[in-house]
């Protein structure tokens, strides 16, 4: 086996297997090879290292995720294979075949046949590896597609000098298991464990972090002069270990997430480095402990958060405003109440004339349920109920003095006017309120049932923004 | 050859079969490391060994010269049957149609290829093979596929002579589908002419017809619910065409005859060959022996190797034998065995290490471990503590729910409850409440951290990605490209529901979690309601 095996940390077995399945000799290379492993397990990296270490193996890389559908994928294969062969053998005259003509799997076979036929004059058989990196990430993936690829080699001419070998990497075991009866050689990439992850990160990131400009700047600012490169390395390594220990349970064994956290927290960490604590990891840790307590992984932009911190000092929480009108907000609140409060309590909660019905039937006893209903799916309601509750909760401020004549002309209650319906349809378009049917809705039809499509956390924020205490309505049942 | 004792893997009795502990894996990985170092040392291995190794790998990959191809004993009956039919149609110019039925990887195509290649040696130019695959060709494109292959093959037979007598031959694959199909039929019908041309340079007989051999892989895809025109015409040709036609169909469907329409079925010869399966362990061992026995002329080491291997195979207590038995009782398939033997042979550095590798079969253990490393249990073991806690909480909720479904809110509430319950039982220091901010701070932090709901959402997504949960009403992978195309434009209800309320179902239940999670784990006690 004339292949060299590169060193990839914790992937010895996989490299060995690659070396035994992928070689320059087409006779001892199986036509299909699968590498399976979840995201961040080093499939692509290992494969790239392998091909880097063996420059005599010719590979074509394609990423199905970029190609969206099966047809562009076929065309890309024809295009790249043709191009690669041209680059490899510039001395052999080759006619160009239009890759866009490949509109069917069988046309790919035909085109490849034609392309390979031009290289008959080659002295030896060569392997050309076609690597489909992330096959199951193709957007329009279907179950029949993979069958086409694994059987493609059977239709290619046996006597051709160029032998196309397929290497697939894939994420899902469930996808792989569909094709297990084909017995394609498979190399699994298990997920890393915590200690492996941290040593990988130290290996891959340390140098980069030390070279980072923010560290340089800080060193100059703090006039840290008596520090060797090794010591900087150990500062960075220490930081990586801290991040891994603090956030491993949050990120799991996801290298990418940890990398992001490292990138995200490194400048802050560096800004706490002083001349004194650079050699004392413990004091440095103590001064930066805030970084490691929370993920600070927020969707709201950092600038706003920082500004509000500067201004208010102790109130970093920025309140989301949700660009909705007052009417919309109240409609949303009303619909939340509709979805999560049982209708039989409506009379007692919203009616100003109490005791229309006498006795317990008037309000019922609100029993605490086993499961907080707020955690469950919203229930459906009719639009009349929504409008009624909306009317009950919407605050109408009379401009005129109470008791004056003009006060009589003012409406005591909000009416369901055109504005309200406009807002309602807007909420529906925003998918904050949903209906049972999704197309051609007649908003006024009594057959249409509605439900709120917003979770408790957001409705709470919205009601706070209009100073409406929605938790009051739920308080005696669930906290 | 020097015996490198250091490179020998440890004796096998130290490694019990089914005890996936970490030490064992490390043990075997250290072997690998040692081997990789060996490789660097012995870059220039001796040529005898390399030729033996290459030969073995070729045998495993099925790429040795045709005359030496390995046909397992249990396959020989069907091989003879196929052989007979092919010879009848190529030599005696009869028309036939056969369907081979057998599971995947049961050597259907292999046998056909083998026989065709054998005939090619002695009866080249007397037949054309046209291969179609139901996965790659649809019923329409198959016609074009046949036309192109006819073109290519005829070109080969006629050599570079551009003049082809029949004008319609020139571009068989041009024109509309019906035109192409007509041309094909016409060509096949009148192929006597084309055949007579090169009849002279074949074997001197007066006129030789060229037999057309069709090999249909996945023939069931052509036997769809509508019309089956292609099969009808081809089977009809078997009956009526003047040119001998032989049709081989391969399929995995046992009830393939039920797929065929009446008019198609009546034209089919009804000859179905069921691929034989491995019946006994002896068949299997015999097969492995065939696979691994090397001809003596390949390498001077061959006889030595054959002896070693035979000794291992005949000893019922050897590791190799045990692995074959394991395969026999589970997969009962040679391809699986081939897949794991390939790296075993390829990673060996010299003859001694190869022999010891086949004796210990330590690599096969490693291979099996690796194959299972991304299974549900494997993934479970790779979870971080928070991920595991959330998974268990979700499983608890799912077990309590009537329909086994749950959502993020419920799982988080359960997690919160469980963590609070544990923390309240930790007696050390009472929490002190900072009256200023209302925040609870612990002076000594030995409680379990309760992660925020928004942080746990990230964990939730990881768990969904790792296939522990499946969204309710989610439709799996579509069957074909058309369905996938429609699905990409279709929003199902689930995508509209807010993240917290989407309902999911578990792929693993609490009882299974209890068995998979080690007792030493902090959350083991949670695995019981």
From TrEMBL, chain A:
Location of this chain's protein in the cell: Nucleus
UniProt keyword annotations, A-Z: ATP-binding, DNA replication, Nucleotide-binding, Nucleus
Residue span(s) of domain Orc1-like AAA ATPase: 8-154
Domain ORC5 lid: residue ranges: 237-292
This protein's GO CC annotations: nuclear origin of replication recognition complex
Membrane-spanning parts: none
Keyword match Nucleus: yes
Main location: nucleus
Domain (Origin recognition complex subunit 5 C-terminal) ranges: 324-474
MF annotations from Gene Ontology: DNA replication origin binding
SUPFAM superfamilies: P-loop containing nucleoside triphosphate hydrolases
GO BP field: DNA replication initiation
A Pfam short name: AAA_16
Family: Belongs to the ORC5 family.
Record-given protein name: Origin recognition complex subunit 5
Protein's organism: Saccharomyces pastorianus (Lager yeast)
Taxonomic classification: Eukaryota, Fungi, Dikarya, Ascomycota, Saccharomycotina
From TrEMBL, chain B:
Subcellular compartments: Nucleus
Listed GO MF terms: DNA replication origin binding
UniProt main location, coarse: nucleus
GO cellular component: nuclear origin of replication recognition complex
Origin recognition complex subunit 4 C-terminal domain mapped to chain residues: 292-517
Position of the signal peptide: none
Keywords tagged on the record: DNA replication, DNA-binding, Nucleus
Gene Ontology biological process terms in this record: DNA replication initiation
Composition bias, Basic and acidic residues: 37-46
Region of interest: Disordered: 1-48
Family per similarity comment: Belongs to the ORC4 family.
Function, as annotated: Component of the origin recognition complex (ORC) that binds origins of replication.
Protein name: Origin recognition complex subunit 4
């Amino acid at each position: 086996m004339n292949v060299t095996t590169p060193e990839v940390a914790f992937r010895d077995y996989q490299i060995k297997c690659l070396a035994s399945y992928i070689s320059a000799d087409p006779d001892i290379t199986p036509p299909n090879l699968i590498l399976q492993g979840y995201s961040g397990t080093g499939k692509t990296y290992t494969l790239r290292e392998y091909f880097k270490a063996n420059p005599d193996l010719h590979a074509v890389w394609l990423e199905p995720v970029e190609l969206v559908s099966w047809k562009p994928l076929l065309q890309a294969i024809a295009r790249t294979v043709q191009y690669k062969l041209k680059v490899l053998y510039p001395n052999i005259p080759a006619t160009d075949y239009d890759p866009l003509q490949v509109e069917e799997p069988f046309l790919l076979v035909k085109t490849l046949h034609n392309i390979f036929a031009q290289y008959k004059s080659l002295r030896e058989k060569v392997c050309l590896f076609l690597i489909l990196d992330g096959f199951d990430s193709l957007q329009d993936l279907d179950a029949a597609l993979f069958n086409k690829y694994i059987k493609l080699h059977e239709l290619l001419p046996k006597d051709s000098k160029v032998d196309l070998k397929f290497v697939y990497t894939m994420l899902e075991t469930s996808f792989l298991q569909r094709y297990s009866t084909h017995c394609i050689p498979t190399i699994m990439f298990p997920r890393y464990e915590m200690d492996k992850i941290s040593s990988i990160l130290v290996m891959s990131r340390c140098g980069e972090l030390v070279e980072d400009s923010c560290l340089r700047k800080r060193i100059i600012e703090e006039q840290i002069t008596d520090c060797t490169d090794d010591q900087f390395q150990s500062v960075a390594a220490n930081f990586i270990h801290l991040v891994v220990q603090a956030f491993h349970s949050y990120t799991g064994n996801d290298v990418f997430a940890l990398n992001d956290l490292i990138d995200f927290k490194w400048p802050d960490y560096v800004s706490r480095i002083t001349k004194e604590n650079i050699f004392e990891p413990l004091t440095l840790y103590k001064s930066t402990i805030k970084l490691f307590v929370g993920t600070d992984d927020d969707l709201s932009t950092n600038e706003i958060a920082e500004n509000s911190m500067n201004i208010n000092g102790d109130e970093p929480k920025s309140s989301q405003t949700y660009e909705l009108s007052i009417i919309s907000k109240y409609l949303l609140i009303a619909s939340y109440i509709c979805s999560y409060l049982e209708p039989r309590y409506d009379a007692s909660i919203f009616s100003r004339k109490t005791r229309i019905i006498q006795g317990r039937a008037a309000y019922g006893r609100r029993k605490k349920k086993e499961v907080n209903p707020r955690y469950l799916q919203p229930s459906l309601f009719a639009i009349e109920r929504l409008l009624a509750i909306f009317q009950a909760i919407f605050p109408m401020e009379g401009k005129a003095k109470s008791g004056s004549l003009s006060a009589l002309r003012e409406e005591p209650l909000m009416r369901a006017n055109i504005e309200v319906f406009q807002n309602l349809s807007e909420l529906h378009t925003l998918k904050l309120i949903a209906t049972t049917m999704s197309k051609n809705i007649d908003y006024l039809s009594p057959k249409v049932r509605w439900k709120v499509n917003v979770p408790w956390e957001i409705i709470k924020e919205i009601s706070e923004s209009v100073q409406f205490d929605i938790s009051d309505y739920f308080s005696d049942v669930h906290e | 050859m020097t015996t490198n004792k250091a490179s020998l893997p440890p004796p096998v009795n130290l490694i019990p079969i089914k005890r996936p502990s970490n030490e064992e894996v490390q043990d075997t990985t250290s072997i690998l490391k040692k081997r990789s170092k060996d490789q660097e040392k012995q870059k220039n291995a001796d040529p005898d060994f390399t030729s033996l190794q290459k030969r073995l790998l070729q045998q495993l990959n099925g790429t040795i010269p045709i005359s030496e191809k390995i046909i397992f004993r249990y396959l020989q009956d069907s091989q003879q049957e196929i052989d007979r039919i092919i010879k009848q149609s190529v030599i005696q110019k009869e028309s036939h149609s056969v369907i081979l039925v057998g599971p995947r990887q049961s050597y259907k195509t292999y046998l056909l290829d083998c026989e065709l290649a054998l005939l090619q040696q002695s009866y080249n130019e007397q037949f054309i093979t046209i291969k179609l695959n139901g996965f790659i060709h649809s019923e329409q494109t198959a016609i074009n596929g046949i036309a192109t292959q006819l073109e290519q093959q005829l070109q080969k037979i006629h050599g570079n002579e551009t003049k082809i007598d029949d004008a319609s031959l020139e571009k068989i694959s041009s024109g509309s589908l019906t035109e192409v199909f007509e041309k094909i039929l016409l060509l096949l019908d009148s192929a006597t002419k084309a055949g007579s041309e090169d009849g002279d340079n074949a074997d001197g007989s007066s006129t030789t017809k060229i037999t057309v051999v069709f090999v249909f892989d996945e023939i069931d895809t052509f036997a769809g619910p509508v019309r089956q025109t292609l099969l009808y015409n081809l089977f009809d040709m078997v009956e009526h065409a003047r040119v001998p036609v032989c049709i081989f169909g391969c399929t995995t469907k046992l009830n393939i005859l039920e797929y065929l329409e009446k008019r198609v079925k009546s034209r089919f010869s009804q000859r179905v060959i069921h691929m034989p399966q491995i019946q006994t362990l002896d068949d299997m061992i015999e097969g492995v022996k065939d696979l691994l026995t090397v001809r003596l002329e390949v390498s001077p080491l061959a006889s030595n190797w054959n002896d070693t291997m035979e000794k291992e195979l005949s000893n019922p207590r050897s590791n190799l034998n045990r692995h074959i038995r394991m395969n026999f009782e589970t997969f009962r398939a040679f391809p699986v065995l081939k897949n794991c033997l390939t790296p075993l042979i390829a990673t060996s550095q010299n003859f001694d290490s190869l022999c010891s590798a086949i004796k210990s079969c330590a690599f096969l253990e490693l291979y099996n471990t690796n194959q299972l490393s991304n299974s549900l249990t494997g993934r479970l073991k790779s979870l971080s503590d928070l991920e595991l806690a959330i998974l268990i909480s979700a499983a608890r909720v799912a077990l309590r729910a009537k329909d086994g479904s749950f959502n993020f809110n419920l799982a988080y509430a359960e997690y919160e409850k469980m963590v609070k319950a544990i923390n309240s039982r930790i007696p050390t220091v009472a929490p002190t409440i900072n009256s200023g901010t209302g925040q609870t701070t612990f002076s000594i932090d030995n409680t379990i951290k309760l992660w925020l709901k928004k942080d746990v959402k990230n964990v939730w997504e990881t768990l969904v990605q790792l296939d522990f949960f499946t969204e309710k009403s989610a439709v799996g992978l579509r069957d074909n490209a058309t369905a996938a195309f429609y699905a990409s434009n279709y929003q199902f209800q689930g995508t509209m529901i807010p993240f917290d309320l989407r309902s999911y179902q578990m792929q693993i239940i609490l009882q299974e979690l209890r068995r998979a999670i080690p007792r030493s784990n902090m959350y083991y006690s949670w695995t019981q309601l």
